[in-house]
Design a protein that fits this description.
With about 250 residues, the protein is α/β, with parallel strands linked by helices. Helix content is about 30%, strand content about 10%. It has one domain: 3-Layer(aba) Sandwich (Rossmann fold), CATH 3.40.50.620. Strand 5 and strand 6 form a beta hairpin. The protein binds iron/sulfur cluster.
């Protein structure tokens, strides 16, 4: 832990520590993996807002915030630090109509600089026979375009979301894309998210109340019974658990 870095910012709290106490952006070499890993260690226990403050100061417009719009917690946390930052939404063309309505509601609430990327292919129902290929076409490739020319990306990944995300770091080197990946909410539990939503009266995705704790494309998402694995409704009839964006 580097001296001067906030030890354990309150999860869900707004920025309370002076940005000046965070690792100096100038002290981190661009694209350097070792430096990135040091920053990850320094910020491993920092509050989400502090992580966002570091990333936005460090990377500026070279940082892309990606949002799945299952909720708007990450957007709210980022917006309180840097309201003009661009947010990317990947429109797979298979989203629930409720998701698209929610995207627009959130966009208006925050007056977001929202960039929507769509696949290069038309809807082809490849999800029926080749869901991995479908995800590559509709998520991974558009994400590649979203990240082109950038140096860092930010996601709302949380360790509590699934076993496959249990080791999600706050800051790490994304070797596959040669970018820094920042996950400010990595340490948040489901209760932390709920408390943040209530405290800040955030709009809630309408499918939450209908048994969808995890919301992706409609062909590959089902409601789950209360108490079940929240991601059990994703690709429910297959062994697939991730779309490939976070591999
Ligand atoms: S989640 Fe389903 S519909 Fe969406 S991109 Fe992946 S396979 Fe295609």
């Amino acid at each position: 832990m580097a001296a001067g870095v906030p030890r354990a910012g309150r999860i869900g709290g707004v920025l309370t520590a002076a940005t000046a106490t965070l690792p100096s952006p100038a002290g981190i070499a661009a694209g350097d993996r070792a430096e990135c890993e040091r920053a990850g260690a320094d910020l491993a226990h920092a509050g989400a807002s502090d992580v966002v403050a570091w990333a936005t100061a460090r990377f500026g417009h070279d940082l892309v915030v990606t949002a799945s719009f299952q909720d708007c917690v990450l957007i709210d946390v980022v917006w309180r630090v840097r309201p003009d930052i661009q947010v990317v939404f990947l429109d797979t063309q298979y989203h629930f109509s409720q998701t698209l309505a929610y995207v627009e509601r959130v966009r208006r609430r925050y007056d977001l600089d929202l960039r929507v990327l769509r696949p290069l292919a038309r809807p082809d129902e490849a999800w029926r026979t080749d869901p991995d290929g479908c995800c590559r076409t509709r998520k991974v490739e558009p994400l590649r375009r979203a990240l082109a020319g950038r140096r860092a990306w930010m996601t709302g990944l949380r360790r509590a979301q699934s076993p496959s995300r249990a080791d999600t770091p706050v800051v790490a080197w994304d070797a596959a894309r040669q970018l820094v990946k920042v996950n400010p909410l990595a340490g948040w539990g489901d209760g932390d998210v709920q408390r943040y939503v209530q405290r800040h009266r955030l709009p809630v995705h309408p499918l939450r109340a209908r048994g969808y704790p995890s919301i992706g494309c409609w062909p590959c998402t089902r409601a789950v019974d209360e108490g079940n694995d929240p991601r059990a409704g994703r690709w429910p009839d297959r062994s697939k658990t991730e779309c490939g964006m976070h591999a």
